[in-house]
Amino acid sequence: MKLIDTLFLSIKNLWRRKLRTFLTVMGVMIGCCAIVIMLSLGIAMERNFMAQVSQMGNIMQIQVYNYNQGGKTPDGNDIPPLNDNMIAKFEMIKGVQGATPVMNLNLKMMADKYVSYANIIGIRADMFKLLDIPIIEGRHLEEGDTNHMVVGQYVAQNFYNPKASRYRWEPAPEGFNLMEEKVTVSWDMNYGEKPQPGASQPKVKAKPIKVEVVGTVGQSGSEYDWSIIMPFETVKEYRKEMEKWNKQNGNSSGGGGRIYYSYGAVSVSSVGGSGSGSDQGYERVIVKCDDIDEVVNVMDKIKELGYECYSPIQMLDDMKEQSAGLRQILLGIGIMSFVIAAIGIANTMYMSIYERTREIGIIKVIGARLKDIKQLFMMEAWWIGVFGGILGVALSYFLSFLLNKFNVNLGSSVIWTPEGEVKLDSSYIPIWLSAVALTFAPIASLLAGLLPSRRAMKLSVIKALRQD
Q1: Taking the complete model, does pTM exceed 0.85, yes or no?
Q2: Is the Cα dihedral 310, 312, 318, 321 positive or negative?
Q3: Which three-class secondary structure state does DSSP give residue 108?
Q4: pLDDT single digits (tens) 365-390
Q5: Fewer CB within 10 Å, N or C, the chain?
Q6: Residue 435 CB neighbours (<10 A)
Q7: Exposed, middle or buried by CB within 10 Å (0-12, 13-18, 19+), for 225?
């Protein structure tokens, strides 16, 4: 019997018993839909976890801190300084794409008639791209940049008019763009405005430095949104000049990152690294991994050296561990639904064999081979799986749409951004899941029809012809 004949004959046989076929197809559809929907809920939960963690920073970045300086490593050795030599050692670890020391300084900025207190973050310019810092205007930092900066998109909101009435806050106008302004910085916290009455004045004036804003950071959910990024070597030079200026003024001039009066006081030593990469080392280093699967391994190797480190992936792992039980339950429910559907297919095929016993005997008498009979019943089971799989995937997309529309929340599906609340999908069906479902349903149906088809092959011709 030709394959094309088997295809049409199998469809004809199914069509002869429309109701039974329809109910069996519905069983496969529901089973397939259950598996797809349950998996889509688990996939959506992981995507939501990833979105939440991404709000806390890049998941492939590791923050390394020099908290344990002077202590011992887990194997009893002295913890080495977190200096340039150690950074080079980090970069030799498998899975590390690059590393940069980080230095923070608090300076005073002025643009047009507006001033602001600014947090400067110094990183190596060649690491800017690797840190995945989004740029929405201008360009990123490049090697060779000196007095160049990239500003967070919310930095402009901190600028105010210092000459406004002391009883009225006058912020910079909406649309104030630092890339279009002439910007200067100074470590004199009185720069750009009159000092408070009775405040001490510096003996040596700090000369403002002209800087160029070359880019604006888009929303990153990190410290970059409210900070200014500059080349590490430039910030280190600022630090030296700042310390020199502080000494010239007896460390009491209000410079060097100290913010007086109503703004509080921020000590330079509390917000920056050592600045020189000397024996004392840096306070913080950012290590960028090239693969998410390598982050935990890199963190373990860094901890073996005695340093404290953190990555948002730790929270992601905790979230996945807490939800693992729920995801297994969901998958178990889906699998049970499909097992029940497979039993329904086997039952339908057995009933079809009993009803068509005489027909099977006649087919054998006229010369049909055993493999033709097996192929016929297997093809009927395959068609049930095909139709059930297609309808099941279609139903899955419809239910997924309803779950997302009405925000049926089995995991945390809401995150907060500077723009406000963002609702995440409760269900997500990737293309690969649909393809797997459309492949799995017919294969499972073939397996369910295997025993009934073997039963049809073994029927005795004599007994079959005697069957009424």
Answers
A1: no
A2: negative
A3: strand
A4: 666 677 777 777 788 888 888 999 99
A5: C
A6: 11
A7: middle
